[in-house]
């Protein structure tokens, strides 16, 4: 017998079916994650501009397929030198379910997310990456999805 309590408890499950799919177990995406560079208010300060300018050299070994960011000025400023160096546009997407979106768009590719502390943690968890998401200026986390739930994490730094 279905009770009101059972029905209410099941409601989140029904809504979950309407959302984007989770990260596919077969995805073999490499997701590079970096926090926006140092800032003063909503824009980068001089140290942040220098750090953003150094990012293309640090990531030169990766053949990027896409650059993603939420629509936040400091994130877009951080991504701009990388976009200029690679010729890739910065694709603005919502931070909600960004991991699923990026891995669905490039299931065998390499992408970067230029984010903020909170969405970096959320996407890190969504990807099932071990350890802590990058949180400090200059920290870069590279999450390699290897299929069957396996993940490999590499940590890099960029900075003046």
Report on the structure:
The chain is α/β, with parallel strands linked by helices. It has one domain (21-157): 3-Layer(aba) Sandwich (Rossmann fold). It is built from five helices and eight strands; from the N terminus they run H-E-E-E-H-E-H-E-H-E-H-E-E. The strands form two sheets. Strands 5-4-6-1-7-8 form a six-stranded mixed beta sheet, sandwiched between helices. The protein has a two-stranded antiparallel ribbon with strand order 2-3. A hairpin with a 5-residue loop joins strand 7 (139-145) and strand 8. Helix 2 runs parallel beside helix 3. The protein is globular, with a radius of gyration of 17 Å. Mean pLDDT is 88; it is low at 1-20.
Outline the secondary-structure elements.
Blueprint: H1 4-16, E1 30-35, E2 39-40, E3 43-44, H2 46-58, E4 66-69, H3 73-86, E5 90-92, H4 98-105, E6 110-115, H5 117-127, E7 139-145, E8 151-157
Parallel strand pairs: 1-6, 4-5, 4-6
Antiparallel strand pairs: 1-7, 2-3, 7-8
Helix pairs in contact: 2-3
Helix content: 25-40%
Unreliable residue stretches? 1-20
Class per helix and strand makeup: alpha/beta
Helix-strand pattern: HEEEHEHEHEHEE
Number of strands: 8
| CATH homologous superfamily caption | Phosphoglycerate mutase-like
What does the overall shape look like?
globular
Largest sheet: 6 strands, mixed
Q: Kindly report the spatial arrangement of strands forming the biggest sheet.
A: 5-4-6-1-7-8
């Amino acid at each position: 017998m279905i009770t009101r309590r059972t029905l209410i408890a099941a409601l989140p499950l029904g809504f979950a079916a309407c959302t984007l799919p989770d990260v596919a177990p077969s995805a073999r995406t490499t997701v590079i994650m970096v926090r926006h560079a140092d800032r003063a208010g909503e824009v980068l300060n001089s140290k942040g501009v220098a750090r953003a300018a150094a990012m293309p050299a640090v990531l030169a070994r990766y053949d990027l397929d896409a650059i993603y960011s939420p629509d936040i000025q400091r994130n877009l400023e951080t991504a701009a030198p990388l976009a200029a160096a690679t010729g890739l546009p910065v694709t603005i997407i919502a931070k909600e379910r960004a991991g699923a979106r990026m891995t669905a768009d490039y299931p065998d590719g390499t992408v970067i997310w230029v984010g903020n502390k909170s969405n970096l943690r959320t996407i890190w968890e969504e990807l099932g990456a071990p350890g802590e998401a990058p949180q400090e200026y200059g920290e870069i986390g590279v999450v390699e999805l290897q299929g069957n739930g396996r993940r490999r994490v590499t940590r890099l730094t960029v900075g003046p």
